[in-house]
Each structure stands twice: as structure tokens, then as C-alpha cells.
Amino acid sequence: MPGLLGVFGKSPFEPLVQHARKVHECVALVRPIADGILAADLDRVNELQFQMSRTEYEADQLKDQVRQNLPLRYFLPVDREDVTRFLAQMDRIADDAQDFAIVATFRRIHLPNEYHAEFVALVDKVVAVSEKLLSLAERVAQLQREAFVGPDAEHVLREIQEVAHMEWEADKLSRKLARHYYGADDLDPITIMLLDKLCVALGGVANHAENVGKNLRLMITRK
Amino acid sequence: MDPLTILLVIAVVGGLYMAWNIGANDVANAFGASVGSGALTIRRVVLLAAVFEFSGAFFVGAPVAQTISGSIVAPQTFAFRPEVLGIGMVAALLASSVWLNIATFFGQPVSTTHAIIGAVVGFACVACGPACVHWRQMAAIAASWVVSPLVGGVLAYSIYRYGVKRYILESRHPVYMAGLFMPLAMGSLAGIVLFSIVYRGLPGLRLDLPAAYAAPIAAGAAVVIAVGIRLMIRRRMWRHHIRRADRYPAVERWFGYMQVATASYMSFAHGANDCANAIGPLAAAIQIFRDPSNVPEQIAIPAWILAFGGIGIVLGLSTYGYKVIKTIGKNITEITPTRGFPADFGTATTVLVFSKLGMPISTTFVIVGAVMGVGLARGFAALDLGVIRRIFTSWVITIPVSAVLAMVIYWILMAVMG
User: Fold this and answer.
1) A2:B28 CB<8 A
2) Do B381 and A148 touch (CB under 8 A)?
3) pLDDT tens digits, one per residue of B102-161
4) Chain B within 8 Å of A2 (Cβ-Cβ)?
């Protein structure tokens, strides 16, 4: 039996959840950065960007840890591909959140008040998508213990649909905002450019969150 | 002292040492998980393991012991030089003991079954030539080594996938369903164990009933146990209201109680199969040395020698085995009770059936098969196939190595005694 003990490998699901938490920490920083942009407070934005890149780096380390704990000889209850894709998509969420922070540090943006509400709405929606996703990802380890079946698994599957819906809403908000600032005559072109880059980064976060959700669905239903 | 007495003493010591080893190293197979989940304290484990290992060895140990002592090489082959058979069996016991110690020293898991079978074949090959080994019987044994993990795997997979998973985990009322599942499981467990004891069991205790009597007795006991447990569960479940979020932990808790029974079942089956590794050769040696003039057709396995093996196992687990159980219990967190139950039940049932058929198989082999079965049904977070491969290789190596060791020891003994 002492030899038999080694048969049970280290679960990849707990570290997977840890990584997801770290990624959401990055996304959660987007809101204060947006506040800094609106307040035209470049020092604050710079400080938050520094925090962001540190968090993103930590997320990267966690990701590598999960990958290292996933040797080929492991037999997993989910497809190995799904696990690595899950990680890669999560990683892109963090990357896009960091992009947002970096663009914000390029230059002081003077955004007229009329754009504030729409911009904040978009940011909040994107953060909400990520939050929802995290709450689902956090249940992966639990689902494994419940063998990926039963009421809890069904609940997660329904919630994944919800994530996709929220991504669509974020998309709509982003389009509306784009129409608004592209159609404006009083904004200077550089501001428009930066706004566009910020919106692309935000859209990326929501998009990848949706992809992670799809991946989660595959993990649960496959086999 | 005359050489026969000396050989007799060596045989008894060798047999006892083998039994001790089986108790010391393998009992953790059965009880590691229940200590790990906190269902049992170590003191209770030692008590339960002692009772069930002994009962398994005593009541169901004979068929496998008969196979090892008399079916691989027929005692009649040695009718003209009976002491050769005795010396050979002693050599087999010593060879497997030595190999067990070497392997344990290097931290390799070994199967006592494979060691003893390899050793018996080894000595037979040099004592009377490979032609006298019953290769057909050996082929059947080798086939059982392949088939038994598969059977264990299929059983564990089916119990998990079509029992635990479909009817409990997938259900909207998992705790209620667990309350229905448990009496069924415990009833069938009790029925199987009782059947294995009374169906063609020990003649001395009049436990050698034909199937027509044994089956109704076992079935009756199964029903009584199932109903009793159902009533108990209903009383306890009514008293506790379980919140939604606590459903799955509650299911695990209920299965945790059941683990005590399945672990006992495992050690019963283990005693039944593995005890023979120690007492099979011993029985042959003792019979020859006590009465060299009369070589029987079949080596008889008297009840006292079964008890002797059982006591050896109990000694092993109480002097050293509990330490192994403790270490394993601490490290084994992956086997939750809902996964442990199918694996244990599948393993124990397989081992017990093969024991009744007189097939010496490796319990650990079957466990690996059962764990893989549950894993295939998405039961475990990660299984290390590399480790599984290593375990299998070390067992395969065991057979030739212990065969060669047995040859060498046989030659030495013959040179000294002859």
C-alpha cells in the first residue's frame, strides 16, 4: 500500500481555481483605474497600473504552476485540452485587463462629463461578467467532488448561459459608447483613439470570459 | 536435534514471518482510507482488522492454500523422496521472505502472492524438472492475475457509475437516495460474506453446506440486515434536517459510516486470499515432515493451521501494520467515501470470489484495477498512470526473482540437509 499512495496525483482543480481568483483580481482593478481616468488623475492610474502588472505576473506564475502539475501520465476526469484551454483563456482575460491599465497610463484623458455614465456602465458590466465567471470557476473543484453531475452541475451550466448573455450586453454598451464618441465633433482625435483602445481591451475581457464559460461547459458535459 | 525437526521449526518460523509480513504491509489497503476520512480511530482499526482478517483466513482461507500447497506441483510427484517437497516448500517460504525484505528496503511495493507462487514454481523446476509443474494450473493462475484487476475495475466502475453516481449524486435528493442505497449495499455485503463462509466452508464446523442451503441462509441474513439498517437510517435522518448546501457533505458523511463495513469486508477478503501465501507452503511442509512415509493426494489444510495464519496476520498488523495505516491515513485525502465505497466493495467482492475459486491473486492488483475503474467514471481528480505502471513492473519482476531465490535456497538446504 505505501506504493499505492502515489497512484493519486495532485488535483489540478484547486490551483485552477486559485488562478481564476488571481485573474479576477486583475479585472477588479479595472474599475478604480476607470475612476482614475475619469478624474484625470494620472498618478493614481500609474500607481494602479503598477499594482495591475504585479497581479498579472502572479497570475502568470500560478498558471505555470498548474501546467507543471499536469504531467502527461496523469489520468484526469476532464480532457487535458480543456484544462489547458481554460488556462489560456483565463490568461487572456488578465492580459486584456493589463492592456486597459497600460493604455490608461499613456496620456491624461480629458473626457467630457456626458461620456462618463456610459463608460462606467461598460466597465461595470465587464467587471460583472468576470465576477460571475469567477463564481462559476470556483465551483469546478466542488463539481469534481460531485462527479460533474447533479443539480449543482446543472446550475453551473445555466449560469454559463448567463455569462454569455452578459457578454452580449457588454458588447451592446460598447457599441453604443463607440457611436457616441466617434460621432462627436468636440473630442480631439487622440482621445477618441485612446477611448477606442480602452473599449477594445474591455471587450476582450468580456469575450474571453465567455470563452472560459464555454470551456467550463465542455469540462462538465464531456465524457 | 534431527534435521526434520530443524526443518519443521524453520517452516513454522518462515510461515509465521510471511503471515506477519502480510499483516504488517497489506492491511493498510483496507483501512487506510477509513482512517484518513476520520471514520475510525487507529485503535478500532486494529481491533476490526484483527477480527476480520482472522475470520477471512480461518473461514475462507482453505481453497487458496490448497492451490498453493498441492496444485502447482502435485505432492505425489515426490512420493519416493517426500523430504524434497518439504525442503522445497521451506525454500519457497524463505525465498519470498527474503525478497519481501529486499523490496521493502528499496521502497518497492511487492505482492506476497506473486513472490510465493514464483518461489514454488522455482523450487519445483529444480527439484523435479519443469515438466512436473502443472503448467495448465499455472496458466489459470496467471490468467486470474490479469482477469482479477479487470473484474475489480468493472465492478467498481459499475457500482460508481450506475449506482452512486446515477442514483445518488445525480439525484435531486442525494441524501434521501443515499439512505436507500446504504441498506442495499450493506445487506448484499453481509449476504456475500455469509455465503462465502457457509457455502462449502470448513467441514469441521459443519459449514460445508451445498448452495441450496447456503443461498437462502445468506439471502435471509441480507434482508434482515438491510431492513435493520434502513430502520436505523430512517430514525436518524428524520431527526436531522439537512440544508441544501450541506447535501453532498452529508452524503459523504453517511458513506463514511459505511466505509467501516466495507473496510472490514476488504480485510475479510484479504485474509481469505493472502493468508494462504503463508500457510499453503507451511501446511505442505508440516504434513511431510510429520509423516514422511505417507504422501497424500492433496495436502489437507486443517483448521488449526488456518488459525495459525490468521494469528500471524493479526500479529503483523498489531506490531507494525498500524503504523503503515497511520501514515497512509494521513496522506490519503483523495479517496472520499463515495469513491472509496465502490473501489473497496468492488475489490473485496472480486478477491472473495477468487478466493472461493482457490485462485491466489494479489489484493493490491485488484485495488489498482478498482481505482482505475472509478477513475474512468470521472471519480478522481488525477490518477498517476506512471506510478501504476511502476507498481505493475515491480510485481512482474517479483516472479522470476523469487523463483531464482527459491532455487538457490533449495540447493543450499539440500546440500546442508541431504
Assistant:
1) yes
2) no
3) 887 887 778 899 999 999 999 999 988 888 899 999 999 999 999 999 999 999 999 999
4) yes
Residue A99 scores a pLDDT above 80: yes
Q: What is the pTM of this model?
A: 0.90
Rounded to an integer, the average pLDDT of A16-24 is 94
Residue from the list B32, B169, B324 with its beta carbon closest to the beta carbon of A150: B169
A183 touches chain B (CB under 8 A): no
Q: Does A68 touch chain B (CB under 8 A)?
A: no
Superfamily of domain A2-221: Phosphate transport system protein phou homolog 2; domain 2 (1.20.58.220)
- The type of residue at B252 is E
| Mean pLDDT of the B211-236 span | 92
- Cβ within 8 Å, pair B109-A223: no
Question: Pick from B377, B382, B386: which is nearest to A11 by CB?
Answer: B382
In contact, B381 and A76? CB cutoff 8 Å: yes
- Residues B407, B409, B410: CA angle, nearest 5 degrees: 60
pLDDT tens for B277-310 read: 999 999 999 988 888 787 888 888 899 999 999 9
What is the residue range of B117's domain? 3-417
Residues in B whose CB is inside 8 Å of some CB of A read 25-26, 28-29, 32, 107-109, 165, 169-172, 174, 248, 324, 327-328, 331-332, 334-336, 364, 367-368, 371-372, 375, 377-391, 394
DSSP state, residue A75: E
Give the start-to-end residue ranges of the domains of chain A.
2-221
Name every chain A residue with its beta carbon within 8 A of the beta carbon of B337: none
Task: Among A1, A74, A151, select the one facing B324 at the smallest CB separation.
Answer: A1
The CB density around residue B334, as the number of other CB atoms within 10 Å, is 21
**What integer pLDDT is reported at residue B299 of this predicted model?**
85
A100 touches B at CB < 8 Å: no
Q: Would the CB atoms of B386 and A73 count as touching at under 8 Å?
A: yes
Chain B contact set for A223 (CB, 8 A): 378
pLDDT score for A11: 86
User: Which residues from chain B sit within 8 angstroms of residue A150, using beta carbons?
Assistant: 169-172, 174
Distance in angstroms (rounded) separating the CA atoms of residues B256 and A203 = 48
How is B17-29 classified by DSSP, letter by letter? Answer: HHHHHHHHHHHHH
Separation CA B276–CA B116 (nearest Å): 10
Convert the pLDDT of each residue in B13-61 to its tens digit.
999 999 998 888 888 777 877 777 777 888 888 899 999 999 999 999 9
The answer to whether B331 contacts A11, with C-beta atoms less than 8 Å apart, is no
CB of A79 less than 8 A from some CB of B: no
Q: How far is CA B341 from CA A47, B157, B257, B379, in A?
A: 54, 11, 10, 12
Q: Does A181 touch chain B (CB under 8 A)?
A: no
Instruction: Write the DSSP assignment of A1-58 as a string of letters.
Output: -TTGGGGB---SHHHHHHHHHHHHHHHHTHHHHHHHHHTT-HHHHHHHHHHHHHHHHH
Over 90: is that where the pLDDT of B204 sits? no
Residue B191 is predicted with a pLDDT of 96
pLDDT, tens digit, 9 for 90 and up, residues A131-154: 999 999 988 888 888 888 888 899
Number of domains in chain B: 1
Say what the ipTM of the complex is: 0.84
Residues 6+ apart with CB under 8 A from A180: A115, A118
